[in-house]
Amino acid sequence: MLDPFFAPFPLFKELAQPLCDTLHLYSLPLHIHEILSAFAIYHIIFEYIAAPLSTALLPTRYTGLSWESKLRWNMHCVSLVQSISISVLALWVMCVDQERKTMNLEERLWGYTGAAGMVQALSTGYFLFDLSVMIRHLDVFGVGMLTHASSCLLTYTLGFRPVFNYYGCVFMLYELSTPFLNIHWFFDKLGMTGSKAQLYNGLALISVFFSCRLVWGAYSSFNIYKDVWDALHITNDTKFDSRPEMMIYGQDRSLPWWLVVLYLGGHVTLQVLNVFWLGRMIAAIRRRFSSKVKVNGKAR
């Protein structure tokens, strides 16, 4: 399926081409404009939209927040927009991209479709924005969030070799739980800690997080591990009925050890973190609705 986004500006493509070829990121010039567009949109929301809109809609609550809480509020606004939009786009591409649906092993590893590349590019643009904020406000968000932003940006950028283009949409579905997490945080700041609305949202958060990050995540991780294992055991006489239009950018059909370690190690680490985060969320929600906690409208 072709990229439904507008075509890249020739100037951007020409400027990016030499560096991308040097770095073996052969499909990146086709999506450089989407990365820059996503970065610009999220930057504008963070710097120029979240604060005045929140002040207009919630003048008492927003203006009463500390500088650090306002910073986090604005970041949660961006995260809410990004998580909803990228989840919808990823699901849409998975449903309508027929070429992607019928990829064989070789195509899943080194193949490319424009629509899947679009999802990958818009995600990369967000992680680039996220990294810039984490660097600027390291004292607020901490080293952990900086490391998360860096690893996500690196992983999705390397996908433009292209490699694992098929799986870009698959793992973006982790974001299905993020809107509920953002809403849970907003409830605290709005003085709705312990409310029924927060309870229902908390139950939805745990259910969706468990389903999309642990169940779907484990299933998808197993699939990518299996594909990598099969690819590493491909013999020279193995023949694939691959479609040329999908392999046109697959100039570097290899799986160097550092790439395998980076991807598979990253997925193992993320799955462990998902289990840890689920436990933390369950504990936090239980504290909010414990009979010992007095609901006084203050954020915990």
From TrEMBL:
Cellular compartments annotated: Membrane
Transmembrane segments: 35-59, 71-94, 109-128, 140-158, 164-187, 199-219, 255-278
Keyword Transmembrane carried by entry: yes
Pfam family of the protein (one): TRAM_LAG1_CLN8
GO biological process, one term: lipid homeostasis
InterPro entries tied to this protein: TLC-dom (IPR006634), TLCD (IPR050846)
GO cellular component term of the entry, any: membrane
Major site of localization recorded for this protein: membrane
Topology term for the membrane: Multi-pass membrane protein
Keywords: Membrane, Transmembrane, Transmembrane helix
TLC domain segment(s): 68-290
Keyword Transmembrane applies: yes
The organism's place on the tree of life at top rank: Eukaryota
Official protein name in the record: Putative TLC domain-containing protein
Lineage: Eukaryota, Fungi, Dikarya, Ascomycota, Pezizomycotina
